[in-house]
Amino acid sequence: QAGLTQPPSVSKGLRQTATLTCTGNSNNVGNQGAVWLQQHQGHPPKLLSYRNNNRPSGISERLSASRSGNTASLTITGLQPEDEADYYCSAWDTSLSAWVFGGGTKLTVL
Amino acid sequence: EVQLVESGGGLVQPGGSLRLSCAASGFTISNSWMNWVRQAPGKGLEWVANIKHDGSEKYYVDSVKGRFTISRDTDKNSMYLQMNSLRDEDTAVYYCARGDLDDRGQGTLVTVSS
Questions:
Q1: What angle do CA A8, A59, B3 make, to 5 degrees?
Q2: pLDDT value at position A94?
């Protein structure tokens, strides 16, 4: 099953802003929206953003999700060392009747 | 507080079977879609299967169709994944997740190896 496309890595400096992208198609991201998950090494993933781009309780306001057409984005402002992690997007694909994931983006905070 | 606890993982030979369990608390599984998601060592996340809140619909990733079966027991507020004809490539940490992957457990490791 075809997945979503994410850049493998992004590097930004401390206190800078990083924007992570996730590209799908009209069967998934385009009409269903995407969720974003963060995973630190050795830990289970954690939800950062719902399909409607809202943040779950407890998620920093420095994180914001958006969507334009078939591309979802996660913007993290004021980068901190703890933001260094793997970030995954996922969306329900209505043609496949399956959740599809991106390959993940490794965010490095320099 | 929502909690999901997976169990049942372990070492199994290729061609063998395992049954994973996911015990839910803090919510009723009959009100939620429930999913299994896995992560092979050093790899990304992969959705495996899900079951509709009323059990009427079940979906699977192509690679497990015909081998894995998702089910639930509302009396026990638990979900299961019966895995048959296991292959090396099924080796992964398996997580159960609620709804739109809102809440997940800590995972259970399945290792398929001879």
A1: 95
A2: 94
Residue in the structure block whose two tokens are 């930004």: A12
% of chain B surpassing 90 pLDDT: 96
Please check whether residue B27 touches A, CB under 8 A.
Answer: no
Q: Supply the DSSP string of B40-102, one letter for each residue.
A: -TTS-EEEEEEE-TTSS-EEE-GGGTTTEEEEEETTTTEEEEEE-S--GGG-EEEEEEETTTT
Given B46, B104, B107, which is nearest A101 (Cβ)? B46
Report the pLDDT value the prediction gives residue A2, as an integer from 0 to 100: 62
Model pLDDT for residues A52-91, shown as the tens digit of each residue: 999 999 999 999 999 999 999 999 999 999 999 999 999 9
| Residues constituting chain A | 110
* Block residue for tokens 């001879």: B114
What per-residue confidence (pLDDT) applies to A1?
58
Contacts of A39 in chain B (CB under 8 A): 45
Q: Is B108 on the interface with A (CB under 8 A)?
A: no
Rg of chain B over all Cα atoms, to the nearest angstrom: 13
Cβ-based contacts of A47 with chain B (< 8 Å): 101-104
CB neighbour list of residue A73: distance below 8 Å, 6 or more residues apart: A19, A20, A21, A22, A65, A66, A67
CA B42 distance to own-chain centroid? 19
| Model pLDDT for residues B45-68, shown as the tens digit of each residue | 999 999 999 999 999 999 999 999
